[in-house]
Known about the structure:
Elements: H1 2-22, H2 25-32, H3 36-57, H4 70-94, H5 96-103, H6 106-117, H7 124-141, H8 153-174, H9 183-201, H10 210-235, H11 240-246, H12 249-261, H13 268-297
Helix pairs in contact: 1-10, 1-12, 3-4, 3-9, 3-10, 4-5, 4-8, 4-9, 5-8, 5-12, 6-8, 6-11, 7-13, 9-10, 12-13
Family: Belongs to the EamA transporter family.
InterPro entries: EamA_dom (IPR000620), EmrE-like (IPR037185)
Organism: Formimonas warabiya
Amino acid sequence: xxxxxxxxxxxxxxxxxxxxxxxxxxxxxxxxxxxxxxxxxxxxxxxxxxxxxxxxxxxxxxxxxxxxxxxxxxxxxxxxxxxxxxxxxxxxxxxxxxxxxxxxxxxxxxxxxxxxxxxxxxxxxxxxxxxxxxxxxxxxxxxxxxxxxxxxxxxxxxxxxxxxxxxxxxxxxxxxxxxxxxxxxxxxxxxxxxxxxxxxxxxxxxxxxxxxxxxxxxxxxxxxxxxxxxxxxxxxxxxxxxxxxxxxxxxxxxxxxxxxxxxxxxxxxxxxxxxxxxxxxxxxxxxxxxxxxxxxxx
Length: 298
């Protein structure tokens, strides 16, 4: 029985683990001082290389043969490329926390679109958790930053656009067969994004130093190779609504990292916001546990 509970929580743990690593992305963006297309290109290129190496070592090459199913993965890669280009530029223009809050308007879109696109019902707990998490995000960045006169409209519009594309990406992943989520989908998405962003990144490649290349390699391996694979494995057992809301934890981790390493400041808003975000995440986990119990009794 205890073992079953551990298996039940494992997919949620995989998503939270992914959020922890993803939260470091803002550090790479702010420290590298490179155009977003360069950062995105190398992130997914190195992610693709490490994933391909893993496939070769584990002799899972046959898993990449997916006749008739490659088109949705190519589309997912294109959508995700747009999302990451936009959020990277938004972070550069508005800061780590501000860029991530706009990126995480995605759950709002998912909760509204999932019933239409993947036939998932909107539950009261999903809406409650969404509200808690979004209030937490507002606290993390600080209400004072929402003075219209002080907003960088270009950066904020890019952030909102990244949120919309991210929502479409999550929903599209949920429409893929379960066996494709994980190593296969991540490998294809990395390959597609690398190809699409290379023409944009090519003019700036000569200006990259060996040190920056090493940092980009680390970002690609950790953020894309490890974290995203963990997220996609978790997504096999977690609904699109729950996964998208749990991912609010990423902005909490990002804000903590920014406060520690970029000196963006650790405030009472960050503490209160963090508690709200964690509360929303726990509500989702316990909601899933109760749902599983109800299904077992039926």
